Amino acid sequence: MDVAGSIGGRLLVVFDGECGFCNRSVRWLLQRDRRDRLRFVPFQSGQAAGILARHGIEAPEADSGSILVVRGFGESTEIVLIRSDAVLTALKELPQAWPTLAVAMQLVPKAVRDWAYGVVARWRHQISKRMGSCPLPTAEERERFL
Q1: What residues does each domain of the chain span?
Q2: Is residue 44 within 8 Å of residue 52, measured between CB atoms?
Q3: How confident is the model over 11-27, as pLDDT tens digits?
């Protein structure tokens, strides 16, 4: 089975694998994704490079703290969501009350949401210094990474 088929219609979350804050965010999502709706891949992987190339996203833009969520990975309908749209889309896949929060947050203008996202993105390395080391994923969690 190819990599795209192996995620079976799930969303693909592309994150900075070298960022402690990003790794903690992925762990947070893993713990709450009880319906197994998300898969994960770091920006530093070949799969992520292919996604960036297909959608004309420059690597420096990707490194600026942006998380990506890919819907329809590897399909002709593949779309990439970035910044706050990516976060809200991932939250909608989690159990209640996260989807409700995501819908409520969509009422906030996108420019404001993306500004707030940018503030966190700029400070993510300073935030992660306070978090210590990232724990290794369990065997079950490793299956959810490409």
Answers
A1: 3-138
A2: no
A3: 999 998 877 788 888 99
